[in-house]
Amino acid sequence: MLAGKILFLLFVANGAPIILDKLLGNRYAWPLDGGRIFLDGQPLFGPSKTWRGMIGALTITALAAESVGFSLVLGMMFAGATMLGDLCSSFVKRRLGIRPSGMALGLDQIPESVLPLYLLRGEWGLTAWEILLLVTAFLVLELILSRILYFLDIRKQPY
């Protein structure tokens, strides 16, 4: 039951920005990096990492956490850690020359799932083995869900 709740929160935190993008288009889509360029001439994170997505993930995940019996604060911490992992992935992807929203199998899923699970492992009593299983489950299920969202015209491209 706990594993299901955790996976639910991972999908909510990661899905909220995608759903908001579909609903709002370019409205309120201000880039987190403000369009800044890093030393290598590439964007810091890129245009797909927005304040709208960050605030949306924090808010929606907090509400989702409360709906499954966790606190709003835990939900916000979880979403914040998930989004931080996602930003780290985007930063690395830009350094590797992968375009914004371009796929990097593993790099797109692991940091954004490992970071919140690791930071909240004590809260939930998670072992390293359980974290590994949850990250693996998230990676596989995210790839499947991505294709479904693409088929439903919610996601711009499948992973």
Q: What is the secondary structure topology, with strand pairs?
A:
Blueprint: H1 2-24, H2 51-67, H3 72-95, H4 110-119, H5 121-124, H6 128-151
Helix pairs in contact: 1-2, 1-3, 1-6, 2-3, 3-4, 4-6
H and E order: HHHHHH
Provide the number of structural domains. Answer: 1
| Class by SSE composition | mainly alpha
- Overall average residue pLDDT: 95
Stretches with pLDDT under 50, minimum 5 residues? none
Q: Compute the separation of the termini in Å.
A: 27 Å
Describe, in plain words, how this protein is organized in 3D.
The chain is mainly α. It has one domain. The protein is 64% helix and 0% strand. The protein is built from six helices and no strands. It has helices at residues 2-24, 51-67, 72-95, 110-119, 121-124, 128-151. The longest helix has 24 residues, at 72-95. The protein is globular and about 45 Å long. The model has no long low-confidence stretch (mean pLDDT 95).
Q: What are the main properties of this structure?
A:
0% strand, 159 residues, mainly alpha, globular, 6 helices
Question: What's a quick, concise take on this entry?
Answer:
This protein is an all-alpha fold. The protein has six helices and no strands. The two termini are 27 Å apart.
